[in-house]
Amino acid sequence: MNHNYNKKVKILFIIGTRPELIKLAVLIKLLKQQAWTEVTVLITAQHRELLDQMLSLHGIKADIDLNIMQENQDLSTLTGNLFIKTNALIREINPDIIFAQGDTTTVMVASMVAFYTRIKFAHIEAGLRSHDLCNPFPEELNRVITGLTADFHFVPTAQDKLNLLDNKVSKKKIFIVGNTVIDNLLETSKKDIDICLNIPKNKKIILVTLHRRENFGEPLKNICSAICDIVKEFQDICVIYPVHPNPNVSSVVKDIMQDQDRIILCDPLDYQQFIALMQKSYFILTDSGGVQEEAPVFGKPVLVTRDKTERMESIKAGLSKLIGVDYSNVKKEIKNLLENNGNYQSMSKKSFLYGDGKASQRIMKTIKEHFIYNNVNIC
User: Fold this and answer.
1) Which conformational region is residue 202 in: left (phi greater than 0), alpha (psi within -120 to 50 degrees), or beta?
2) Integer-rounded Cα radius of gyration of the chain
């Protein structure tokens, strides 16, 4: 066994959005505590305000801030700017390994620059696939490209491993660790958090999150209209919707849902408040990937307003349901959960489908085994 403690392992985290930081926070803090690591955190700020909120909450300092965000920038501009800025910094820092999480443009660019510079790249939450490059857009393409270039694929589930094997990724590079979001979720859910919203008493809370690019325009209008009509029909419910600041979302939502009785539109909540609200909710309507992973831990049914999802485990287990974006179907499926108690109960079972809260520890152990003990061979 070869011990190599003299040289610290230089680890670079590249983070673009709030969900990425949510899923990396525990791992970053864990690796910063190790004697054998030197950790640098680079944020591209693909999502500016929401990411800053999360950094403050977790007490994580960004060592480098690219401040890449521009109002309503298109994907080509974003991608080009990311390539130029991250390439220069990665060459300057020259880390032993780069970590990135998920399927954003930041992750895809980081993996490509790592490949070009011959620096090892670790992909957290690897292997998710919808098998449709346009759905979700552009995340599926980002995942596929990252899957071709990564050296360490840390996958949440056995299905994710199978997806990578189907893509001809070497099994030596694939490690089933669970999803790091559950690490943060379990840590956060232990705290007593004040949600700070004036929620009506004795109402069933429907928590709504809608923000995906493929739902901009008519799909979002359809969903919002269906929610409004449901609230008028059912007097015992209250909808709470933390609205994403992207104007493609906020302008549509406010135009249709503002000043409606028993619909609370609020600014994005911090992570602790959101988890507390999730625990209080009756069920959740969302197009978010992370919420699909988190909600089963609390036994909260999820209606997924998408045509396809890369998180099929909870769908197959009957804890989530794909309902699309058609007005009539969205309204029908919400009514079904409100009126059919048997259906509701079958979707309300607590489950740890996506992890047990120890993913970060497993990832750290794998990296240490590779760089310090030379026991993990990914070639």
Assistant:
1) left
2) 21
pLDDT tens, position by position, 253-275:
999 999 999 999 999 998 899 99
| pTM listed for this prediction | 0.88
Bridge-partner residues for 306, per DSSP? Answer: none
Task: Name 5's Cβ contacts closer than 8 Å, sequence gap at least 6.
Answer: 35, 36, 372
213 is catalytic: yes
Tokens found for residue 276: 């507390």
Q: What is the DSSP string of 272-324?
A: HHHHHHHHH-SEEEE--HHHHHHHHHHT--EEE-SS--S-HHHHHTTSEEE--
Amino acid letter, 188: T
Spot the catalytic one: 18, 58, 129, 244: 244
Q: Which CA distances in Å does 272 have to 97, 184, 269?
A: 30, 10, 8
Q: Is the pLDDT of residue 209 over 80?
A: yes
Q: Distance between CA atoms of 127 and 349, rounded to whole angstroms?
A: 26
Q: Which of 139, 270, 310, 313 is catalytic?
A: 139
Domains of the chain with bracketed CATH: 9-179+356-371 (3.40.50.2000), 204-346 (3.40.50.2000)
- Is 139 designated active site? yes
Interacting residues of 31 by C-beta distance below 8 A, sequence separation 6+: 11, 37, 39, 364, 367
Helix (H) / strand (E) element for 113: namely helix 105-117
Burial class (CB in 10 A: 0-12, 13-18, 19+), 40: middle
Tell me how far apart the alpha carbons of residues 342 and 346 are, in angstroms, rounded to a whole number: 6
Please, which residues have CB within 8 angstroms of residue 365's CB and are 6 or more apart in sequence? none
Residue 259: both structure tokens together: 């000043």
Phi, psi at residue 183, to the nearest 5°?
-55, -50
- 131 flagged as catalytic: no
| Residue 214 is among the residues annotated as catalytic for this protein | no
